[in-house]
């Protein structure tokens, strides 16, 4: 279990939510392969690969990452910390630079609500958004990012995927069903997650649009193997996937509780 840490400056506005999501619990059970009985075979293959026998069934993870995010058509470097507690929520707090000036803020889903809040120099509003559409989009993000905490697998519903070597992980979030189809390699490695996520990419009308994550590398932290190098964006699986990609990241640490 990780020691208590300070809330990142970018998320001070939601300090109480960060603390609540970060609490975690002392895991009452440890993982054994028999827990996977009844799940679709690709799900068993991935989870058996991702969770070492005897690992506590952690409820929360705090991630550190760095990478590039596309803002205004330009790729910009960022660093971030994220607390992730499916199905309760997440807060992703990050720092980037635009025109040489720092932009800090967060995206979150918690208490069945969503929010984006970003400031230039910590003061000048760059983006602020809340409401039902933001909540549904953030819920979809949580459904996909649950793969970063495979020890919560028993909180999801599982079904066979539409294609070989795929399985569907489904969550009830923000008043709707959110699901991600996971593609699993023969060795149990997670290769991709694809979902129909609520949003309005490139100014489109709000609705469900193809969204995906490609996993390029994985790493093991404390008995849990998770995607560590990934790319994400809208229009996955279409001829617009290249223009829709907006996020590239490397996870550098994962602390579980």
List the helices and strands and how they pair.
Elements: H1 15-22, H2 41-50, E1 61-71, E2 74-85, E3 89-98, E4 101-110, E5 113-120, E6 124-130, H3 132-145, E7 157-160, E8 166-173, E9 176-184, E10 190-199, E11 207-221, E12 224-234, H4 241-244, E13 245-256
Q: What can you tell me about this protein's structure?
A:
- This protein has 257 residues and is mainly beta.
- The chain is built from four helices and 13 strands.
- The chain has a 13-stranded antiparallel β-sheet.
pLDDT < 50 runs, ≥5 residues: none
Question: Tell me, what's the shape?
Answer: globular
| β-strand number | 13
Give the fraction of residues assigned to helices.
10-25%
Order of helices and strands: HHEEEEEEHEEEEEEHE
CATH architecture classification: Clam
Spatial separation of the terminal alpha carbons: 5 Å
Question: Largest sheet at a glance?
Answer: 13 strands, antiparallel
Tags for this model:
single chain, 13 strands, 257 residues, outer membrane lipoprotein receptor (LolB), chain A, mainly beta
């Amino acid at each position: 279990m990780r020691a208590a840490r300070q809330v990142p400056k970018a998320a001070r506005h939601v300090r109480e939510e960060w603390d609540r999501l970060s609490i975690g619990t002392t895991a009452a059970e440890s993982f054994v392969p028999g827990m996977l009985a009844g799940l679709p075979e690709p799900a068993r293959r991935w989870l058996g690969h991702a969770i070492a026998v005897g690992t506590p069934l952690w409820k929360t993870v705090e991630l550190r990452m760095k990478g590039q995010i596309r803002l205004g058509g330009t790729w910009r470097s960022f660093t971030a910390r994220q607390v992730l507690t499916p199905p309760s929520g997440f807060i992703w707090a990050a720092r980037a630079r635009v025109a040489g000036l720092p932009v800090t803020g967060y995206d979150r889903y918690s208490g069945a609500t969503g929010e984006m809040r970003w400031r230039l120099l910590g003061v000048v509003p760059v983006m602020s958004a809340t409401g039902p559409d933001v909540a549904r989009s953030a819920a979809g993000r949580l459904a996909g990012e649950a793969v970063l905490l495979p020890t919560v697998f028993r909180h999801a519903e599982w079904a066979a995927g539409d294609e070989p070597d795929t399985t569907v992980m489904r969550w009830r979030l923000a008043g709707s069903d959110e699901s991600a189809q996971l593609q699993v390699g023969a060795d149990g490695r997670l290769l991709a997650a694809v979902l129909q996520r609520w949003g309005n990419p490139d100014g489109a009308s709000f609705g469900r649009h193809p969204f995906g994550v490609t996993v390029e590398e994985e790493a093991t932290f404390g008995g849990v193997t998770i995607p560590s190098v990934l790319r994400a964006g809208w229009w996955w699986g279409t001829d617009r996937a290249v223009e829709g990609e907006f996020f590239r990241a490397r996870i550098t640490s994962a602390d579980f509780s």
